[in-house]
Amino acid sequence: MNPAAELITKINSYRITTGVLVTDHLWPRLIEICKLAGLDYAIIDCEHGPHDDTTIAQACAVGRMLNFPVLIRPISYAYDQVRRAIDLGPCGLMIPSVENVEQLDIVRDAVLLPPRGRRRPGGWGNHWMDDFQYDTASVGAGADPRGWAQRRQEHVDDRQWPGADTTGLHLSLRRRAERRVGAAAWADRQRVWGN
What is the CATH number of the domain that holds 73? Predict the structure, then answer.
């Protein structure tokens, strides 16, 4: 099973997708509780939350054992922040405040290994992986669709971003993005990217 791919499929099929943004309280057992409650994902909020790396890596490991998608929202799209977040072993990321293609390129470089990126393999959360290429990494743009709209306008090849989500991780963010960029631009995005 691939929890990241299953989550992306569910989001792209416009089925109701529910999850939690873990900001104040994180402990590894919380991931099991989320799965037992029937949620679709958990996002560990490092942008606003006080979580330490060991607890985050343990929560990601529990998610992998349960085939439950655990994502991380790093502090920013900065290379060092994204690289450190992916080292902790999430199945994906929710990147805050992406506004242009150059910022997306920074994220790509931090997530993918050469020749497609600059990342080096390693980290506590990656000992379970046979392949450090992260072909199923999920990259979300948070709640700001401006970066994705620019990317769509410039027709950047989506194959550079395997498994890339569009503007967020659930339907309410998609609806908000549609309102912000306009229904016509959103429909064009769906046509160009095919999802």
Answer: 3.20.20.60
